[in-house]
Amino acid sequence: MLSKIPIEIGKIKKADLDKEILRAAIIGELDAINLYEELANMTDSEDLKAVLLDVAQEEKTHVGEFQALLLRKDEEQVIELQKGKKEVEELTGTK
C-alpha cells in the first residue's frame, strides 16, 4: 500500500477530513480485495477458494458504499471520474 494509514489527522483540514477517511477506507477495501483474490488463486481447495472469492466480492460492495459517500462530499471527484470515463471511451473507441 502506498498510502499512509492511519491518516495523520492533525495535518488534514477539517473540511477535508471525511473525504480523507473515505479514501483511506476505499484503499483498505481494495487492498483486501487484492489479498483475497490472490489467496484464492494460490489455493487448490475449492471450499477455501469459494469463501475467499465471496469475501472479496463483499469487499467490492464496500468500495461502492464508500465511493457513493465520497461522491456526495467531493464534487471535483465526480467531475474527474466522468472525465476519466470519457478518456477511456475515446482511447478505446467504446462507450
TrEMBL record:
GO terms for molecular function: metal ion binding; oxidoreductase activity. The keyword Transmembrane does not apply. Its main location: other. Keywords: Encapsulin nanocompartment. GO terms for cellular component: encapsulin nanocompartment. It comes from the Archaea. It is found in: Encapsulin nanocompartment. InterPro entries: Encapsulin_nc, Ferritin-like_SF, Rr_diiron-bd_dom. This is Rubrerythrin. It comes from Methanobacterium paludis (strain DSM 25820 / JCM 18151 / SWAN1). The lineage of its organism: Archaea, Methanobacteriati, Methanobacteriota, Methanomada group, Methanobacteria.
